[in-house]
Amino acid sequence: GALLPVASPEALRAPAWFAAMLERAYGKERTDAILAAHRRQAPIDLTARDTSPESLERLAIALDAIVLPTGSLRLLSGADITTLPGFSEGDWWVQDAAAALPSRLMDVRARMRVLDLCAAPGGKTAQLAAQGAHVTALEMSANRLARLETNMARLGLADRVTPVCCDLFAFAPDQPFDAVLLDAPCSSTGTVRRHPDVPWTKSPEMIAKLADLQARMLEKAATFVAPGGVLVFSNCSLDPSEGEAVAKAFAAGHPGFGIVEVHADEVPGLETSIDSSGFLRTTPADFSLGGRVSDAIWRKELDGIDGFFAARFRRLA
After folding, report:
1. How far is CA 72 from CA 46, 120, 171, 240, in A?
2. Would the pLDDT of 221 be above 80?
């Protein structure tokens, strides 16, 4: 019989199906880099309520953090989050730098009506509300929605957020929204640095089911967008069948929506994470701070970012 290729030592730390999926999607070299990144502890990132450069600089000093090119804060050392300066004042919340990107792609302005689907625990809802939008936060789990409400209260954003406990497929708003964010449930394979068990608890069959659910959710989310409005689809999977494939199929089947390409200046430090379709695709191997911060600060374990996918569309009519 044919000789089977011997798995590299890198790949042995991941289930065979997962290593094979990565290699198909990203090639051997990048796969090895992703698997190596998975063995490093993920740093802790924060999103600030006030994202002005002066405020970020002030917070970075108070928190012993650095300001990432994308505008998130990255802690330089581990800490009990609730005891850090600004926690009880609601100055910031914990959110990986990659998870903070989809909301930034929505170009939200004051008083816009925005719908955040699958909203809990509320990091993206908070970002949208902090930018001045009025956010309808939809979540089907009452427990998770309660957590979101607690978070909004701490952040002083509750008056800009309308929590709704409802299944996305049963939601029937009175009028469409200026912008809609669907951060869809997924296999979470972009978060292995934080959740090392993820590849071992998922399977290709499960991912196929999730991709089908995402496609149906995106179809429904599109019905909530006002003419001229923006729709962002995102998730924290590394598998293109849950990201690129869903977004391309949606674009092909919905001539009333056009792809709005992500531009390099919207994702500083991640310019190379924009693909030929104008979608955003990050992996844990994509984000090095080398050369961006002083040598005294830079350490390998401060590198990396969650695996994330985001696609942006505009309703044309």
Report:
1. 6, 20, 32, 25
2. yes
